[in-house]
Amino acid sequence: MYGNIxxxxxxxxxxxxxxxxxxxxxxxxxxxxxGKTQAEIIKGMTNKLKPLFIS
Length: 55
Prior knowledge:
Blueprint: H1 2-8, H2 10-25, H3 28-33, H4 38-53
Helix pairs in contact: 1-2, 2-4
């Protein structure tokens, strides 16, 4: 997901992942704008993903 966002952009990634995926994708922009590293962004996205998909 991170690779697709960095390669294709946030807006193009919303459709393939659906509404819950959108919530994870939306974590990317504020972290990126804050100057976070790739690892920090992926961690933030993963932290958002876990409660949405793992019960």
